[in-house]
Model the fold of this input.
Amino acid sequence: MSDSITPRQQEILAIARVQGRVNVEDLAGRFEVTPQTIRKDLNELCDRRLMTRVHGGAIVVSGVENLSYEARRLIAHTSKRAIGEAAARLVPNNASLFINIGTTTEEVARALVDHEGLLVITNNLNVATLLYRHPAIDVILAGGPVRRADGAIIGSAAVEFVRQFKVDYAVIGASAIDEDGALLDFDYREVRVARAIIENARRVVLVADAHKLDRTAPVRIADLREVDVFVTDRLTSAPLRELCADHGVEIVEVGETPVEEA
Done:
């Protein structure tokens, strides 16, 4: 392996950052090379910890900058939909809850539309858009600057807004989960809102697919020990499973869903 990545590998990384994931066959056609050549490229990028292999292709290993929101929607979409449905089943009618920003928390909101008597407080414009039309669900939207990249409402005004409430449930996501149980994100302003959400809920539900264990992010949201229920597609990490058992964190696995082709 050479000291620097090739121009083709640089382009593969650029494509992956936009799309969220890349597919071997698609890349082979795009660059007019064999699938074996693309697999070698992906393996080298994975050896450098720039990407992580998934069935049929690879995804970006994020460091200090998140993928685009639309790209994140494409990753493990089927799993996220199943996670959202399982998390929604944990929320009874006539409950109050926070829902923060994220493509998986958005799937929880999508699955809540048949509930009745809900009060949903969110800093997620996408969640508010999904739920505000439903007459049995009251939606309260935090105030503050809107992050153009994903519709998150962030900043000190949103933090103070959240602190006015004490709700039954918090549904939170994370950009990455470390082996030591750290829940991580990219934007410290969003993390401040997430911390306030966790601190002002009686029960905290973390929703995250297995890919989050393969990613990194620089800012600590919280620790898995602070979560009451962890809803995921599959938990393959023995240390995290042991941590959950030691600290009474309930694990809900929705089943191993095949990774979708790009």
Q: What stands out?
A: The longest helix spans residues 7-19.
